Amino acid sequence: MKMPPRFSRMFTSLQSKSSKKRASRLRRIGAAATVAGSLLAGNADAAPINWLSPDLVTVPADVFTDGTLVEAINGVPAPELADGSVTVNGVEFIDTHLFEGVYAGAVGIVSTGDPGIDDLVGSVTFAGPPLVELTGLTPGQNYALQIFIGDTRACCSGRTITVGDGDADTSNDVTYQYSDNGVSIQATSILGGFTADAATQNFVATLGSGGTGTEFSGYQLRAIDDPLSAASVGITVDRSTGEIILQNTGNSSSGRIIGYSFTSVAGSFDQSGWTSIADTYDADAPGPDGGTFDSDDNWVELTQAGVTTDLSEAQLEFQANPNDGGVLTPGASFSLGNVWEVSPFEDVVAQILIDDGSEEGAIETIGVAYLNAAAVLGDIDGNGQVNVADWNLFKAGQGSDFTGLTAVEGYQLGDLDADGDHDLFDFDLFATAFDNDNGAGAFAALVSTVPEPSSVAIAFGSVLLITVFSWQRNARSTDG
Fold first, then answer.
1. 209 CB contacts (<8 Å, ≥6 apart)?
2. What residues contact residue 108 under an 8 Å CB cut-off, 6+ apart?
3. How far apart are CA 198 and CA 195, in angstroms?
4. Which residues are within 8 A (CB) of 366 and not within 5 positions of it... i.e. 6 or more apart?
5. Burial of residue 291, with CB atoms counted within 10 A of its CB: 0-12 exposed, 13-18 middle, 19 or more buried
6. Integer Cα distance of 192 and 224 in angstroms
7. Which of 115, 197, 258, 276 meets the CB 3.0–4.6 Å disulfide criterion with 325?
8. Are 259 and 314 in contact (CB under 8 A)?
9. At what angle do helices 424-438 and 388-396 cross, to 10 degrees?
10. Cα–Cα separations (whole angstroms), residue 434 to 373, 374, 384
11. Contact 177, 158 (CB under 8 A)
12. pLDDT band, very low/low/confident/very high, at 255 (cuts 50, 70, 90)
């Protein structure tokens, strides 16, 4: 099977084929408040609106429901639709004749399978004033504005729209392509946040690239507690347990995550502790957590068995599912299990694959935060202490073949300086670490206080003689 471009760029463990159904990556917001507002034409001053990235609209969840609804407008009058008021994801968009021009049910939108979405974005209202004014706002209140637009008519391929606050300072404005004749873009929404500085607020949605004037399908305004910010997706790694958690600490939702890949050159992963989405959180996963991350797609683990340098899984394209991935809502977190090997090596790089409507998807590198105290050099078994158990593991590694081992594998055999061998330098590092953790002279006492010749003393003598001999031989070789 041939690997699709977007998976070949990100994952190296699987080959697959097929094409991808479009999906969206709506950023959502959280919190609650209550205000009242309405839409009028006007030209009052406006607070800056901070816009997130535009997203495709394909499923009801793309209409956010957090916060308190102020108003939701379907900008097409009832005569053009059997029912001009439509409900999507529990939000009722009221039939309101905003502007003079209307294209109803004739804008070429490919059906999403949801009648509410099709009615909302399957028509546009246009020929409106340069500015749209929201009224009845409460100064100091945080708001989120979501604008919807869909128009894939042959006449309008390649059109762009610019959204902003209508101010002379356009640094916060966003221009994006919203139509390409149905090839890949069906309908879009964009979410912006602002803190009201007056009872009114302007916004603009101005056509470009062959179009003129204001055009959109509808919008909704919601009151929120905290200022809108982008999603903050990342992972945490618990140094004490090895648990990795995928989470969103922002106050808006992530894009639609259809895969992730974590890599570690040091070889820090142990798949035996992996709580994968495929096994635990996708549509066909058993148990109470099944479907909690992705309720309608099945995921596949991409990492081959035994691999310690990569941890990857994805929702694949050829499955007979919506193929729209999962969304991390604000504050959401999913444990991926105790899959990180506790060691001094902290080199995990994390990426997620977001469905942005393109063939390849968008790869985003996300943050990695390590929690709790860092591992102590010499704590080979990772229990937080350098003790006799670690000394036994250190001795057992003497004479091992380190060829082809990862840094973590070598460390577990006593290669503390990660130079690919087990020698006097490693012995010195361990002795120092033991004393640091147990007090000065503790290591000397460990290897000398033995009631009778034992495996400990014998092993210690063997280790010391072999490492000293190796070190002297290497020194002579270097000097000569």
1. 158, 159, 160, 177
2. 151, 152, 153, 154, 181, 182
3. 9
4. 233, 234, 235, 350, 351, 352
5. middle
6. 12
7. 258
8. yes
9. 170
10. 17, 16, 12
11. yes
12. confident
Region of residue 372 (phi > 0: left; psi between -120 and 50: alpha; otherwise: beta): left
Its pTM stands at 0.63
Q: Which two tokens stand for residue 266?
A: 């040091």
Tens digit of each residue's pLDDT (9 = 90 or more) over 115-160: 888 888 877 777 777 788 899 999 999 999 999 987 766 676 677 8
Please identify which residue in the block is written with the tokens 């959502």: 28
Residue 312: strand, helix, or coil = strand
**Bridge partners (DSSP) listed for residue 95:** 74
Record the tokens describing residue 447, joined without a space. 């290897």
Q: What is the pLDDT of residue 465?
A: 44
Q: Between β-strands 91-95 and 68-74, what pairing exists: parallel, antiparallel or unpaired?
A: parallel
Q: In what order do the strands lie in the sheet with 233-238?
A: 299-301, 310-315, 257-263, 349-354, 362-371, 233-238, 243-248, 333-338
What string of DSSP letters covers 42-111? --------EE---EE--SGGGS---SEEEEEEE-S-GGGSS-S-EEETTEEEEE---SSEEEES-S-PPP
Report residue 311 as tokens.
């941890």
Cα separation, 218 vs 226, whole angstroms = 24
CA distance 418 to 41: 68
452, exposed or middle or buried, with CB in 10 Å at 0-12, 13-18, 19+?
exposed
* DSSP letter string, 238-254: ETTT-EEEEEE-SSS--
Cβ–Cβ under 8 Å, residues 377 and 385: no
Distance CA 250, CA 244 (A): 18
Share of the chain above pLDDT 70, in %: 73
In whole angstroms, what is the distance from residue 341 CA to residue 282 CA? 25
Q: Under a CB-based contact definition with an 8 Å cutoff, are residues 101 and 172 in contact?
A: no
The 10 Å Cβ neighbour count of residue 472 is 11
CB 271 within 8 A of CB 311: yes
Structure token digits, residue 475: 């020194």
- What values do phi and psi take at 159, rounded to 5? -70, 150
> What is the token pair recorded at 404?
């082809």
Residue 338 to residues 13, 240, 387, Cα–Cα distance (Å): 21, 10, 23
Helix, strand, coil percentages, rounded to 5, for the chain = 20, 30, 55
Q: What is the DSSP letter of 265?
A: T
3-class DSSP assignment, residue 338: strand
Strand partners, 363: 353
pLDDT in tens, 7-40: 444 444 333 323 333 222 222 222 222 222 333 3
Q: Tell me if residue 158 falls in helix, strand or coil.
A: coil
Neighbouring CB atoms inside 10 A of 384's CB total: 15
